[in-house]
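in:
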């Protein structure tokens, strides 16, 4: 601590030198770290819980639970279960004598939840109430306590549980983890006595620029004396970020001080700020006396006009824009609400890469995240933290609302204010936004209709369509609640089509960005999601991209192609649709690669690039479509797939597609093998090291062996299907016959319904199933052709097809055609799995699949026509539609709605109708047409070839 103390003295002296050198801008002396990456140790004592009662140290900023102090709470815990530790912090700083002629204030960016500050034993001001906004104390006025030329002791007492009941409900009775501690930076701000406290900017798209300057002149006048003039002019100039002046300077005289000075100008030749072209400028504002600069304040901003047009929608710079949003709370699995600059920039870049254009947060974001949103082009809804009713008391709420507006109003990314969340709306606070915000942005009440914006949360598809049919602009600020990778992309395609077809559809904001799994220091780092409360993101706690991320990315991609494969007559032209708000496709680049994939016999999977190139996009304006011309080499048909990547004007990848090239292919190992009857039985046949046994009565596969060990593939083909209310019974009286046809052996089965299936065993070591079943006339939740395959005999799978993620009927997007591999797991994304795809489930576009068996060898599957293969039975499926999910016995964290119907038996399925998956709050059939039961038109026909291999 002594070394730290001397270091602080040295830093203060150096900054004192800078100030004495007439530095006109405010200087900061950090008493803490700027974020978690450079946190500074303070003395600390916690009064209750773990590691309580003794003075030790803790890094600042941080949350004390993550450093072994106190106890944990999730916001939904009962009030009597909420822990109420109080933490006391101490540190020292040196104040140079030169600061006596300066204005010095102590700033806390964020402390949870009630904070009392003492300087050299004297309490400063009143206890601050509220954990999510900055607060400050003027040390210049503390004549008795503040020591110049000496060390000063700072004591901070932080109570994580508020003594104000409304604040406790507003900020801590919520659907997120709640913490204690000083979790954002603490610093001293030193500037001249006359200084600019803040500015407010309104920079319109047409170049109209309005600037409110709020100066402070901290001089005490004497009785019957005329105060001297310390500042006589407010001066401002706009600059580009590379230092070039824009427009003419602005100036206003100021005599004897003023609470606000307004400057205006009109500029030309400026670039606009938008999510696609986020051009930024800065304005430098001076207080001057006789032409000399006394104080300077620099503020970044962007020229843009955001407006709500009633009964129409949102417009940015005169063009209609639809919101593709996601909710994101400030969170890190290791450090809680204290986050690093790297973390927030990584989040912002990843959000942008998902083709999302807006972020909403229950908790005010860090300055660094806002800077990232401004720079990258992410719109922001800034919200007062009041998770539910009862709403926050007016005196506290007004102060918090003021701090929010003054902190965030100059960010061009901020387009809406949210006064609380889901009935946590104190109506006496709404006027603060309009009084303080120079741009007078709309105020919303998330989950209700306010100021002509309907924000109703979690609508079923039917409710969604009803809202979109009304004249009020509709923006659900939470919808398609994710859970264990259900939601988000599941149903989004249906919802988004409805938005695009509605004149008042403003878009939507998904819940949510990341799984808030917390690394518990009281459980050896175990990741805790508070049951199923925080397993609801499209990325994992450390940013691991989940299947939902890729589904959202594809559905919301501003560049769309409908082509799914290339046929032999492909001319090199691909139709592209431009869904951008303000970008023509000739400003984008398209890179292409012709690729070949390894065969099933390869020991390792690989991708070989046969040829590659790039081309500029066609001249297609937003809302139109056109032809992308690819100059492919003549031998392009020799490739397995065409990989196509779209790059935006800033060099960021927008979307990647992989289109299989349709051609005859050989994937099975064909070797000359003699077929032998086992014990003369024509229904039990041996091909080299393979043995296949069929029922003499029905022709169903009874067993299969490789090297004398059972593969487990058996009891099929059987049909599995279910309507809305019942599982279907496909039992029938089968008759089987066996005969030799040339070198092949045939086993054919028929029934009284004229259904049939045929097994063909060849001397090349293959077993092919051809089937033809009658049409099922009911609307079905699912329909598959299945076999038994014991889970305990499956070790891994490799496949050529769409991957690496599974699909549902209402989430087919987000997968890429390629070669994929993963080992067996029985885990669930968001519950106990991050960064690794689930092993079980339905996989699409399958050209071939190889299942590694624990017993011996592998099972190779070549589905000639059916491309949806279900592997084993996922854990959160419903085995019977006759049992409503609400009546299912629940174990621990099992979801109630984010489940789907699945065949009650069998371990390997070939699907003709895929089931849909639900979200956290609704079942699949409520999420749109894709998730609803549907009829499979025509007979069920298909061809599947099997082979047991090394």
């Amino acid at each position: 601590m002594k070394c730290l103390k001397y270091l602080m003295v040295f830093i203060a002296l150096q900054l004192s030198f800078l100030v004495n050198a007439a530095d006109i801008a405010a200087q900061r002396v950090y008493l803490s770290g700027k974020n978690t990456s450079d946190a500074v140790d303070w003395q600390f004592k916690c009064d209750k819980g773990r590691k309580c009662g003794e003075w030790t140290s803790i890094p600042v900023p941080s949350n004390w639970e993550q450093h072994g102090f106190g106890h944990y709470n999730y916001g939904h815990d009962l009030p009597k279960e909420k822990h109420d530790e109080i933490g006391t912090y101490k540190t020292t700083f040196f104040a140079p004598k030169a600061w006596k002629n300066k204005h010095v204030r102590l700033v806390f960016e964020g402390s949870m939840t009630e904070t009392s500050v003492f300087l050299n034993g004297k309490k400063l001001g009143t206890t601050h109430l509220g954990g999510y906004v900055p607060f400050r104390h003027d040390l210049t006025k503390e004549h008795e306590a503040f020591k110049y030329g000496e060390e000063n002791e700072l004591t901070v007492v932080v109570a994580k549980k508020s003594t104000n009941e409304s604040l406790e409900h507003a900020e801590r009775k919520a659907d997120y983890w709640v913490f204690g501690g000083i979790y954002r930076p603490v610093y001293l701000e030193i500037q001249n006595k006359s200084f600019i406290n803040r500015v407010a900017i309104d920079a319109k798209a047409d170049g109209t620029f309005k600037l409110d300057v709020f100066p402070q002149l901290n001089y005490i006048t004497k009785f019957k004396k005329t105060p001297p003039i310390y500042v006589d002019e407010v001066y401002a100039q706009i600059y580009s970020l590379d230092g070039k002046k824009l427009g003419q300077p602005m100036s206003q005289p100021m005599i004897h001080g003023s609470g606000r000075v307004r400057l205006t100008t009109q500029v030309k030749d400026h670039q606009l700020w938008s999510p696609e072209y986020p051009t930024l400028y800065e304005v430098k504002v001076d207080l001057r006396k006789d032409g000399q600069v006394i104080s300077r304040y620099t503020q970044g901003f962007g020229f843009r006009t955001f407006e709500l047009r009633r009964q129409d929608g949102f417009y940015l710079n005169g063009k209609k824009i639809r919101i593709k949003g996601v909710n994101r709370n400030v969170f890190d699995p290791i450090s809680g609400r204290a986050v690093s600059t790297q973390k927030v920039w990584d989040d912002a870049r990843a959000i942008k890469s998902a083709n999302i254009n807006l972020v909403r947060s229950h908790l005010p974001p860090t300055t660094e995240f806002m800077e990232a949103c401004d720079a990258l082009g992410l719109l922001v809804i800034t919200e007062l933290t009041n998770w539910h009713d009862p709403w926050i008391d007016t005196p506290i709420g007004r102060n918090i609302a003021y701090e929010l507006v003054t902190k965030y109003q100059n960010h061009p990314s901020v387009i809406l204010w949210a006064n609380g969340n889901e009935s946590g709306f104190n109506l006496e606070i709404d006027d603060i936004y309009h009084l303080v915000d120079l741009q007078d942005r709309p105020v919303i009440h998330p989950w209700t209709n306010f100021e002509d914006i309907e924000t109703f949360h979690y609508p079923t598809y039917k409710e969604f369509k009803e809202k979109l049919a009304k004249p009020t602009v509709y923006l659900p600020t939470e919808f398609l609640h994710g859970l264990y990778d259900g939601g988000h992309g599941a149903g989004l395609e249906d919802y988004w089509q409805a938005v695009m077809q509605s004149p008042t559809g403003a878009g939507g904001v998904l819940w949510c960005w990341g799984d808030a799994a917390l690394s518990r220091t009281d459980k050896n780092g175990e990741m805790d999601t508070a049951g199923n409360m925080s397993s609801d993101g499209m990325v994992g706690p450390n940013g691991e991209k989940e299947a939902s991320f890729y589904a959202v990315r594809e559905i919301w991609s501003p560049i769309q192609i409908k082509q799914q494969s290339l046929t032999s007559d492909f001319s090199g032209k691909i139709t592209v649709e431009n869904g951008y708000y303000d970008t023509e496709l000739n400003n984008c680049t398209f890179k292409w690669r012709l690729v070949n994939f390894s065969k099933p016999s390869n020991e390792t999977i690989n991708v070989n690039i046969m040829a590659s190139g790039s081309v500029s996009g066609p001249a297609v304006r937003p809302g139109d479509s056109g032809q992308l011309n690819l100059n492919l080499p003549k031998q392009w048909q020799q490739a397995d797939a065409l990989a196509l990547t779209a790059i935006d004007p800033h060099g960021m990848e927008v979307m990647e597609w992989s289109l299989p090239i349709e051609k005859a292919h050989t994937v099975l190992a064909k070797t000359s093998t003699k077929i032998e009857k086992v014990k003369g039985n024509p229904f039990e046949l041996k091909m080299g090291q393979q043995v296949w046994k069929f029922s003499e009565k029905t022709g169903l596969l009874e067993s299969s062996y490789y090297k004398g060990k059972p593969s487990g593939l058996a009891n099929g083909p059987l049909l599995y299907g279910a309507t809305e209310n019942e599982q279907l019974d496909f039992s029938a009286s089968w008759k089987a016959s066996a005969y030799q046809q040339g070198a092949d052996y045939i086993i054919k089965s028929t029934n009284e319904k004229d259904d049939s299936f045929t097994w063909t065993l060849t001397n090349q070591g293959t077993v092919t199933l051809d089937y033809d079943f009658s049409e099922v006339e009911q609307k079905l939740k699912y329909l598959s052709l299945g076999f038994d395959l014991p889970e305990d005999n499956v070790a891994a799978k490799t496949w050529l097809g769409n991957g690496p993620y599974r699909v549902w009927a209402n989430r087919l997007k987000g997968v890429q055609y390629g070669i994929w591999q993963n080992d067996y797991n029985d885990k669930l994304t968001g519950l106990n799995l991050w960064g690794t795809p689930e092993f079980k489930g339905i996989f699409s576009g399958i050209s071939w699949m190889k299942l590694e068996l624990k017993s011996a060898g592998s099972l190779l599957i070549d589905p000639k026509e059916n491309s949806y293969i279900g592997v084993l039975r996922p854990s959160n499926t419903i085995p019977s539609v006759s049992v409503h999910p609400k009546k299912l016995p629940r174990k621990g964290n099992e979801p109630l709605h984010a489940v789907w119907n699945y065949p009650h038996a069998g371990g390997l399925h070939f699907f003709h109708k895929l089931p849909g998956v639900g979200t956290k709050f609704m079942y699949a059939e409520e999420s749109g047409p894709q998730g609803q039961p549907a009829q499979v038109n025509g007979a069920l026909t298909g061809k599947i070839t099997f082979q047991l291999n090394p």
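note: The two ends are 65 Å apart (CA to CA).
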